[in-house]
Amino acid sequence: MESANIDGVVLEYEKSGTGEPVVFIHGALIADAFLPLVHATDLAQAFQLIVYHRRGYAGSSHLDAPVTLPQQAADCLALLHYLGIERAHVAGHSLGGSIALQLALDAPETVGTLALMEPAMFVGETADSYRESLRQGAERVSQAGATAAVDGFLSARWTGFRAPLDRLVPGGFEQAVRDAGDQFTHEMPGLLDWQFGDDDARRVTQPTLSILGGANDLPGTRFQDAHRYLQAALPNVEGMVIPGLEHMLHVQEPGKVAAILADFWDRHPLTAQ
Q1: How much is the pLDDT for 218?
Q2: Where do the domains of the chain lie?
Q3: Cα distances (Å, whole numbers) of residue 253 to 34, 49, 190, 228, 250
Q4: Average pLDDT over residues 32-57
Q5: CB 74 within 8 A of CB 106
Q6: Which CATH class is domain 2-272?
Q7: What's the pLDDT band for 273 if we cut at 50, 70, 90?
Q8: CB contact at 8 A, 209 and 113
Q9: What are 200-233's pLDDT values in tens digits?
Q10: SS (H, E, C) the chain
């Protein structure tokens, strides 16, 4: 990966392919979760793909204080400008999906479309329990250690994750353990403080695709609550449920997710906006 030093913040990034630009914003813990989708599919034949490590991950700047979602959205915007990109498709997973929504609010002229894969949102009946589970993250690191905390976090989101993760994202688990301190201590408070309500949703007018893993399309899951909320609250949204997949859907089936994304971007080109 290359490195961009933007006002003292270092962000590692990789750019490949040609065509309309797409920036991928990864979720919590697995910094390279989008690499199977970028490297093992033919997306780069039709689009310019940008993946990067957010603050606190791998070789990007480490965190010594909590970072807010507006700050993380500003990082993504600054990286795009550093690369000379004024408008892009934006795809985000989990916490990265929340950052993508914030970016759409803060820089609507830059966000051409949004693809949201189970964004981290506090909505519906699961809002309080989801907040509480995140608050417990830092305690798990201090009490049980980073390895146990990461294992518990990922096991709750991808059944039997370890073997396929090691195969599809080699070294991903070990990197997550190294990054866990920053993630649980300094990143989660920013998510817990994030506010996104109906007034915000009405401002997100870009074509938006909300993707839900079919294994999470169940009453009482925060994934379904977020998916339903987005479909009800955003002005220009379409929904997609992919049967059988869990939260790390873009790692589990990168080819299937890539095809869905490519179809969405083809139907909503930047040149037509």
Answers
A1: 84
A2: 2-272
A3: 11, 18, 30, 23, 6
A4: 95
A5: yes
A6: alpha beta
A7: low
A8: yes
A9: 999 999 999 999 999 988 888 999 999 999 999 9
A10: CEEEEECCEEEEEEEECCCEEEEEECCCCCCCCCHHHHHCCCHHHCEEEEEECCCCCCCCCCCCCCCCHHHHHHHHHHHHHHCCCCCEEEEEECHHHHHHHHHHHHCCCCEEEEEEECCCCCCHHHHHHHHHHHHHHHHHHHHHCHHHHHHHHHHCCCCCCHHHHHHHCCCHHHHHHHHHHHHHHHHHHHHHCCCCCHHHHHHCCCCEEEEEEHHHCCCCCHHHHHHHHHHHHCCCEEEEEECCCCCCHHHHCHHHHHHHHHHHHHHCCHHHC
Of 89-103, 140-154, 235-249, the range with the lowest mean pLDDT is 140-154
